[in-house]
Amino acid sequence: MAQSHPRVVSGSLAGRRLRSPANGTRPATAILRSAIFDRPEIRDLVEDARVLDLYAGAGYLGIEALSRGAATVDFVERNGPACTVIRRNLDSLDLSEQARVHRLPVERCFSRIPLDPDLIFVDPPYRVDALPVIEEFVRRANLSDGALAVWRRLTRASGGVAPPPERIGGLVRIDQRRYGDGAIDTYRAEAPT
């Protein structure tokens, strides 16, 4: 269900209204965006960061990152109407020069996106197991030590996919939090020892 009046939570664009897609996506609520971005490790990393928003949906996570000082965001979303909403929001907020919207399945995006982001959001439809996509991304990526990946997923108790591993290639889970019927797992890239 689309939010009636979603707004940017914080940063230079705090309070600005966001368009919502008619259907087909599950936008991150203001409460959830605050819970993610107010965490010290995210807050300290986002300024001047290169951000990748996989399964972007309405693009609220990437737009929130831009409002909080991210240098660039690449949005990847296969749903055409959702991509239109992202572009309209970027245009209305004067963010188009800092962002690129890629309309294609996440599974086919790796040859078209930067593979060295500082911050990655992975927010698939709840019934989609993003683990194979994350594994493939990590195999191909050139992640710097300390890069963060934030994965929002349905918990298994709610009929979701299996619990994620502690480590995905060079990503090590540093935090896991439950929010309603979902969970957010945060991973940090660590240089091989």
General description of the model:
This protein has a single domain (30-189), classed as Rossmann fold, CATH 3.40.50.150. Helix content is 24%, strand content 24%. It is built from 5 helices and 8 strands, in the order ααβαβαββαββββ. The chain has helices at residues 30-37, 40-46, 60-67, 80-92, 131-140, and strands at 50-54, 72-77, 99-103, 119-122, 148-154, 167-168, 171-179, 182-189. Strands 3-2-1-4-5-8-7-6 form an 8-stranded mixed β-sheet. Strand 4, helix 5 and strand 5 form a beta-alpha-beta unit. The model has no long low-confidence stretch (mean pLDDT 90).
Give descriptors for this structure:
8 strands, alpha/beta, 193 residues, Rossmann fold, eight-stranded mixed beta sheet
Topology (elements, then pairings):
Elements: H1 30-37, H2 40-46, E1 50-54, H3 60-67, E2 72-77, H4 80-92, E3 99-103, E4 119-122, H5 131-140, E5 148-154, E6 167-168, E7 171-179, E8 182-189
Parallel strand pairs: 1-2, 1-4, 2-3, 4-5
Antiparallel strand pairs: 5-8, 6-7, 7-8
Sheet/helix structural class: alpha/beta
Dominant shape: globular
Number of DSSP strand runs: 8
Q: Identify the quaternary structure here.
A: single chain
Mean pLDDT value: 90
**Largest sheet, if any?**
8 strands, mixed
CATH topology-level name:
Rossmann fold
Count of separate structural domains: 1
CATH homolog superfamily: Vaccinia Virus protein VP39
Sum this structure up briefly.
With 193 residues, the chain is of the alpha/beta class. The chain is built from five helices and eight strands; from the N terminus they run ααβαβαββαββββ. It is globular.
